[in-house]
Sequence to fold (204 residues):
Amino acid sequence: MQETAFIWDLDGTLLDSYEAILAGIEETYRQFSLPYDKKEVREFILEYSVQDLLEQVAKERGLDVGLLNQVRAQSLAEKNAQVVLMPGALEVLAWADQQGIQQFVYTHKGENAFTILRALGLDSYFTEILTSQSGFARKPSPEAATYLINKYHLNPDCTYYIGDRTLDIEFAQNSGIQSINFLASPAACNQQIEQLEDISSLSF
Fold:
């Protein structure tokens, strides 16, 4: 079995992208004449997801969620230049690569994730990148992790999902793998970090 493996979340974990995401949502709201409260929206997407937000808005306002998604995706793609690396991201990816740790991405971002990762010079670090277009049920469903574990013969005890939200810890729990997260959690699988550089000092 392959030993240590990292599966990375993107937004808020490797990518400092929340400002770009919020700007895209604000533009989308404006196009549909919806009231926008940045603080409220930020808190909602951190606890749940952008998709959950759009589905709720569509239901409340009688709008087409597909159209909302389309407008938001276009707006966000135009803001790729605003997306930058989280502090220590490149260093920890390079460190893991040197350690022989196999690395993957599973994100709720769409195909735009590939564009951003290429632009930032990160795509070569990952064996496979799974996005919302890959056809798996969204987190916290374990489908994506199960696919990676089976395809690459990963050891769940040595496979870590690295993220920044409770949803990411729940995904790791449901998948029977380990969690590294910026949040504290009573979950036995989770190790909390303050910054990405902390990962290199953990025991694997």
